[in-house]
Protein 1
Amino acid sequence: MPIAVLYAGAPSMNTHVFPTNVYTSPVGKKTIIKSITINNNSSTDQSFTIRMAGYSIVYNHVIKPNDTIILPASGFVLLSNETLSVGNSSSLYIRVTGEVIDTSILLSPIVILRSTALTTSATGTQYRNTSNDVLIKSVSLCNITASPVAVSFYMGGFGIISAKMINRYDTLTIPFLDQLLIKGDYVQAWAGVEGAIVPYVTGIEVVNNA
C-alpha cells in the first residue's frame, strides 16, 4: 500500500491520562508511521500527549500559540490492531502519514524494545537477537515526569546516549539511527529515575547478513 494519510483532524479535547484513539492498525497488517504534525491554532499554550500501542512517545508536552511541531516518526511501528492515540487540551490540528503493509513482508520494521517505563538498571530493559543482525532504525525516549531525568542507551556495550538529560515532559527522538546491532549483542536502556522514561525502539532484522 502506498503512503497514505492515516489521520487528519482536530481530536476531541481529552487528557494526557486518557487520550483518544485516532487510528487503529488493520487486523493482520502492520502500520509504519512516517510523520506526525501538531499545530496549535490558538492564541494560548496547549498541551498534548501521543501514544503508540499505549506507550507514550510524547507526554503532556506544551506547544506554544500558533506553533507547529513536526515529529519525525519514520520507522515507528504499530502491530496488528494496535492504536495511535492523542490527548490534547484543545485547539490542536493533528496530521499523521504512514504506510500499511502485510505482516509477512520480509525486511520490514519491527518493534525492538518498548516498555511502560525504564528501570535504573542497565540490564533491566534490554533486547537481544541471537539469530540475526538487527538494524536499529528509530529511537524514542519520552520523559513522563515533571522533572529532568538522565537516560542512557547502549548498543553492544557501547554508548549511543550516555546520561543525557531529558527535560520535563520532553522526548528525545532519533528517527534515522541506522546503527547495526550484531547478532548476540544487546540493546540496553536505563534511566536515572525509576519509571520516568518510556522507550520505543524499532528496527529491521537483517537475515543472513554477510
Protein 2
Amino acid sequence: MLFSRVFVIAFTFVIIFSCTQKENKEVIADILVEDLNFSKEAVFDSVQVPHHLRKIVRYISTLNTYETEALAKGGTENLNFENAKKLYDQASEEELLNLTDNKNNAVAMYAAVGLLEINPQYVTAVFQKFLNRKGKVHTQNGCIIDYEYLAEPLYQKYFNTLKPEEVRSDIKMQKLDSMLLFAENASELILTTAFRNRTYSDHLKKQIEKLAFQEHRGSAVLYLSNWHKKEYAQQLQREYLHFLTNDTIHEIQSRNYLYHLMSFNNPDNKKAILEYIKKDSASIDDSGIRLQLENNGIYPTAY
C-alpha cells in the first residue's frame, strides 16, 4: 500500500487576516459585513419561519456566513456563531429541521449543525438534501475563509464528532461516504477523506471507475491504485501520465502521481517520467522517487 505517499492538497480560497471587534456587543455587526461583503448576496427568507425566530434568522441572514467557534487572529467573538447559539436556544428540533430548507444558505447550514447536535439521526437525510442543493455558503473557520457547497461543512462537522477508531464502523459515516461518490460537486478534499475512511464494496466500483477514468478525479485514481492496482493497471497508468502533463496541478501532488506511476515499474513510461523530471528537477531529491528510477529503466546518465 502507498498510503504514506498520499498527500491531501486543498486548493481552497484562503485569506488570512486580523479580525477587529467593536465594543458594541450587538450581534449584528458592520465590520464583518463591510470587510467581506457577504451581506450584498444575502437572501432573506421568512417563509415558514416562526415569528419568535424571525429576528435571529434575519441577523444570521444579514451576516450571510457560516462561522465556527474558532477565532481569527485578534478576534474576540464570531458574531454569527453567537447568533447561532441564540437560534439553538430558541428553536425546537422540528423548527431547526424546517430551517434546513431556508433559502439563505447560512441559516440552513446553522440549522443543520444545530440539528446534528440535538439528534444525529437526521444527518443523512439533511446531507442528501444539501448534496442536491446548488448554492454555496460563505464559511469562516478561524482565519480560513472559504466558499463551499453546504454538504461539505456538514460532512466535516459530523466527521469531527467521531473518534478516529469510530469512523470506519459508524453506520451514518458509511452512508455519507457512499453518498459522496455520487455527488456532482464534491471537492477533492472531501472525496479524499471519504476514500481514506474505508474500502468500498464491489457494487460501488463502477461509480469509482467513473470518478477516476471519466471525471479524472485524482482521489478516486489513488484509491483504485491502493486497493485495485492490478485490476486497473493500464487505466491507472494512463491517468497518471495525463496528470503529469497538467501544469495546473500543484507540484507536491504531481510528485505523488509520479511516485504512483513509477510503482508500476514499467519501462514504457520512461520517456514521460524523464520529461517530468526535467520539468521538475527538484523531484529527484525525493528518495522515494529516486529509488524507483532504475526499475523504470532510468539510470543516472539519463538525467
Protein 3
Amino acid sequence: MSKPINKYLSFDITLHKTLSEFNQLPSGQVTSLDNLLSILHDNWLSLGYNSKKEEDIYKMRAVTTLIKYYYNPKDKGEENILIDKFIKAREDKNIYFAKIDKLHFLDEDTLEVIDYKSGWHIPPKSHIYNSNKVYQTLFCIYSKFGCFPQQYSFYYLRHNFKYTMTINEIFLKRNFKT
C-alpha cells in the first residue's frame, strides 16, 4: 500500500516538473518569467496540504523560489544532455539507478550533473558529497556515457545557492575502478 503524498513531496514534485519543462523549451521559444510561472501553475500539485491557506503559502514559496531562479540561474550552460531522466547501470549482480535532474555541458569541455533540492535546509558540504546517491549517480553516468562529469552540483532552489564539487582524477581513483 502506498503512502499518501505529503505537502513537502508535492512541493518538490511541482518544482522539479516545472524546471524540467522550462529547461526543455526549444531554443528560440520565449523563456520569460511569465512563461516559467505559467508552467508552475500548470504543474501545481495540490496534494497533502492541510488547508487552502497552507497550500497558498507553499504556492507563494514556489513563486518566490522561481523568481530568484529566473533572475539568477545557477544552472546555465551550452547543451543539455539529460533532464529529469532515470538511468541505470549494472555491476556484477547489482543494478543501480539514478535520477538525473540535469546533466549538461557548462562549456564545450565541462560536463556537470545537477541535483535540484527544494527544501529549506542546506546540510554541511562534507555531508552531501559523502553519500551512496552521489556515487551511484556518477557510476550510472559513467556506465551510460563512458565518462564522468567534471562537476557534481547540489542546487538549493529556495536559497538559489549551489554547492559544486569538482570530480578530479584523485576523487575517481579513490572511489572508482575505471
Protein 4
Amino acid sequence: MPLSRPVQHDVGVIVLGPGAVRYGTALIGVACAWAAMVFAWQEQDGPGSGWVVIAVLLLGVGIGGWLTGRALRLGVVCGSDHFVVRGLVWSRRIPFSAIISMPGPDDVTTWPSIAWHRHGRRWSTPVLAFWVSQGRLAAPAQRSAMDAVRRLERHRVERS
C-alpha cells in the first residue's frame, strides 16, 4: 500500500517563454545577489556594522535567488478552464470566461498582456515571458514568442 497518492494537477500545457527572455531576465536576480556579495566583501573589514553587512548579504542573495527562480519559470500554465500567468513577482489565475482580449503575435515586441474582468473591474495582466525586444538578433526569440502566443490562443479556443 503506497504511503501517499500522487497529486493530480489540472495542467494541460505549460508554455514557457523563449530561453533568451527567461535567462536574460534571470540575470537581474544574479546581478542583485552579486551586488550584495560584492558589498559584503568590501565591507567585511570596514568600519560598518557587522549586522548591516549580514542583512545586506542575506537580503541581496535571498531576493536575487528568488528573482532568478521566478525568471526561469516565466510562462503560462494552461488548465482546462484557466490560465496561470507566471510573472516575475507573482502569478495570476485567469479563467477563460473572464478573458476580454489575448495578446496577438504582433504584441510580442510591444507589451503582450491578457485583458480580463473580475467583479466588474477590468484587469490587464502582462505576459512578460513573451515580451521580446525588436531587432535582428532577437528574431529567433520573437518567433518563439509568437508561436507561444498562438498556442495559448488555440488552447483557450479549444477549451472554451
